[in-house]
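Hello,

I think I submitted the adenosine-5'-diphosphate job twice by accident. Can you confirm which output corresponds to this input? Input:
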Amino acid sequence: MNVLLLGPQGSGKGTQAKRIAGEYGLAYVGTGDIMRAAVARDGDLGGHLRPYLDSGTLVPDELTVALIRDRLDDEDSTPGFVLDGFPRTMAQADALDALLRELDRTLDIVFELQVSKEVSLERLLKRAREEGRSDDTPDVIETRLATYHRETAPLAEHYRAQGILVGIHGERTINEVFAEIQQALEQVSVRR
Ligand code: ADP
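Support: Only one job matched these inputs. Its output is below.
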């Protein structure tokens, strides 16, 4: 089973993605984590990525797609994956479709975690106070949210057209959101 999550920063997407992966034995593929790990390893790639992460702008598609391709190749033998943070642009969505065809895999379901701009901003500012992630400053948060709404939110239509989009109301507790996700996943496994 291959699952994709869409949703703005602060929607709880990462939390739910990791939980789905844990519960169903799927590989968690979080682009933010992959990028931050590359920066931490330093070297040329890390140095190249860092300015994008620090400013909250998107890493160029070509580089992002190459990183994801490597990772999905690695996960070839697992029963499936949960993608979090990729694709974020229409070009990345097209690249993912092509990559999946190459790997002879398909996406089974795409969740869109829906939260208002106010709630996601509020949650991010709270996380900034508590965790101090370097890209959680008010300016950079604003850039990331604006990029999401401009570049990524339109991808919901792409997956709606494929008949695999499920909208989830995200302004509820983590357990309530997860329960709804589980119901949808069980329907997928029944259909398969
Ligand atoms: P958030 O979704 O809260 O912005 P992430 O941890 O998912 O945080 O991503 C952190 C940063 O990594 C982004 O601001 C961006 O610079 C880079 N990044 C992550 N995923 C992608 C992607 N699919 N395409 C381009 N850049 C990405």
